[in-house]
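Notebook, bench 3.
Goal today: get a predicted structure for Methionine--tRNA ligase, cytoplasmic from Oppiella nova so we can plan the truncation constructs. The sequence was checked against the plasmid map this morning, with no discrepancies at the termini. Length recorded as 673 residues. Pasting the sequence as submitted so the record is complete.
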Amino acid sequence: MENENLITDLDIASEELEAAFSQWSISEDIVREDVADRRVISGGHNVLITSALPYVNNVPHLGNIIGSTLSADVFARYCRLKGINTLFLFGTDEYGTATENKALEEGVTPKEICDKYYKIHKEIYDWFGIAYDYFGRTTTEEQTLIAQKIFWRLHEHSYLLSEETQQLFCPKCERFLADRFVEGNCPFCDYCEARGDQCDKCGKLINATELKDPKCKRCATTPQIKSSNHLFLDLPKLQPKIEEWFKATTQLKDNHWSQTAKVIINSWLRDGLKPRCITRDLKWGTPVPLDGFKDKVFYVWYDAPIGYPSITAHHNKHWEEWWNNPDDVTLYQFMGKDNVPFHGIIFPACEFGTHDKWTMVSHISAVEYLNYEDSKFSKSRGVGVFGDNAKDTGIPADIWRFYLLYIRPESQDTTFSWTDLMNKNNSELLNNLGNFINRALVFITNNFEATVPEMAFQASDKTLLARINRELVHYSELMDKLKLRDGIRHILNISRIGNQYIQATKPWELVKKGPEDRARAATILGLAANVSALLSVLLMPYMPNTSAVIQSQLNIKMNLLPKDNRFHCILKSGHKIGKAEPLFKKLESKEIEALKQRFKGKQETVEANGANSADPFEGQVLTVDQLNELVTKQGNKVRDLKAQKETKPVIDKEVKILLDLKKRLGLVSGDSQ
């Protein structure tokens, strides 16, 4: 009994111990029936959750997944466990320049690109177990109707400005060139691969007409300067409303804006908002309905956030109950930090500008970046794990979910590490969580005919209840505050407490002794089985498949958390459990090293100045058309590497190849100086 006494010598008052024991005996509902009809409960607690809409033209990597989608899924599952009426939605952002670019690269139409990548995205999120209510897309009739309705309201209330802008026009393609369709030398630092909106080298914002030696990305023709009228959202006029709303929202006692989100919005407001262009001279987008602008489409600054209500409307005829109901609906939005201005400035400004009642965002959870080992994720170089190949690793989706949430970059950048993934799986899941549950159920099966035995509590048992109650309170507080990374640690604390309890009480010895000791073992194992049942529901937001397996082994169905954040008896004496089996398998160093090598990507050998001396086109006789095509493709490659935040040596190597190609093109075409 000496070891057992150790777990009672904790700083827990007798009143807390007796309260824990009293609460244990209270029965609570543990099952909530799912409601198919997604309607708002008038006067009730309704939560609307969105995940940032990923661009349709790429495959999400692990950083994208934890940055918004997986985080939103965990919180939505948690809300449902609390019995809250919850609607969780997201989808693919399909309009704009990025889609047109991708379509050009693959030689297909923008619609075909969207259809292809929408399917890829959906398959990835389904494999990761994302329990969305609606997964939609922005290329719908509802998107057009809602975007144009908001536009007309902004126009009616004079929040739009018309301004003639100087733009680059390609005479060969017979079209105005949007920002990403033109490149040239930066007017500030002379960097040769500056885009029409920003220089990636010096970081300065630029106008496309300021580029030196600009070239059309599609055909490498030198563009002309032409005038084009565009519409701007008058953000300076709307700034007082945004500031008032932002201050009031983030100063509420229960506000859960992440610090990252607050810093970004404060920075924008402090510097003063500027009018933002909301139209573009493109074909692929939501058409602008105003006379004089009907040859244009809405720009992503304006159009993309409207995807949330339009996706809802596409699936739910009662969508306005959710989006025009600030009194009954609380809106949570999850995203990476680069998306904060869209959600915290642009869309709220549009909502205010309509003078209509909107469900404004109450909480923005924005995270920092997830890096990969000692590098950055790069699809083109095969560096890092992307959503479409995670399932081919043989590692279950729940393990990916667990680890990504364990390292969620809530306040600073974090790094995915294969070694750390292996260690966390083997220590926290296999040796801690899995070991506790498996031991408890195997002991019950072998010694009590797979039946939860009678329980007669002693002091150490009440201590266990009180310790678990403390962890439950912390878990709930953290989850409510969107501290998902810390929430999972309190689940692991509970299984750790359970392991300590079993180790101290040694039921495997007690069952071999007399009736009194056997009765003591019965209490220990009955309580351990109940702790396992509690863990199954706490795990549900994080590891839904594992949760389901545990409940199958326990022969229960449970999808509600205790309302009072207290540990209640779930499995009564006499309850028959199912077959106990190991929950997790050990990850071996050899297996992990193979995966690490598989996803390390192509390693280029570069000189000290970052440039590879080998010219892949050296010695080849190329025509002007061939060189134009190579310049375009190499330019695309350089832009992709920059967008993926590739290392400087790799980028410099590809820039050198591009400069050599441009020099050869100038010599062949006679345009060299």
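The longest strand covers residues 160-170. Residues 607-672 form a domain with the Helix Hairpins fold (CATH 1.10.287).
Flagging this for group meeting.
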